[in-house]
Specification:
With about 160 residues, the protein is an alpha/beta fold. The chain is about 35% helix and about 20% strand. It starts with a strand and ends with a helix.
């Protein structure tokens, strides 16, 4: 079992929660979300919000909090091969209630289908909020260009 090693980013002003599935190898090594340079998460979200793309971990934290966004992953620990979401087994959920009880989060979005399926299977009943599925920003999601991702995320995310 591999343990999630990145704390959530949120504060009392967070209004939306974006959930990934489980950190990639690069994210676990870098100790922050979407750390792989090919992942388009930061480019997509900054384009949606009309902001400069944050570069450092500290800039990313400030960017999220300034825009009232909480960020974490559905899974706290699991068996996984490399960074492959499709290989996730024996998943144990993160305690998402902690964020909801200490913020203004009313909407939950998932970054990709695996996060959506894991949320629905592990957390939805306890949390009581339906998640909105966004297309994955992973480079493995080659069917979606950067422009297409930005368009769909912009259309679905609201505060």
């Amino acid at each position: 079992m591999i343990q999630h090693n990145i704390p959530p980013v949120y504060d009392e002003n967070s209004k939306i929660l974006i959930l990934g599935s489980f950190p990639s190898v690069k994210s676990r090594e870098g100790m922050f979300f979407y750390h792989h340079p090919q992942n388009r998460f930061w480019k997509v979200l900054s384009a949606v919000l009309g902001c400069d793309c944050p570069q450092t971990v500290e800039e990313k934290k400030v960017f999220l909090l300034t825009n009232n966004i909480a960020l974490w992953d559905v899974v706290q620990s699991c068996t996984v091969t490399g960074s492959s979401d499709s290989s996730i087994k024996d998943a144990v959920p993160n305690p998402l209630r902690m964020i909801l009880d200490n913020s203004r989060v009313m909407r939950i979005y998932t970054n990709g289908n695996t996060a959506y399926m894991l949320y629905n299977g592990l957390c939805r009943e306890d949390i009581g909020i339906d998640a909105i599925k966004l297309p994955s920003t992973s480079p493995a999601n080659a069917a979606f260009s950067l422009e297409r991702l930005i368009g769909i995320w912009r259309e679905k995310i609201y505060f």
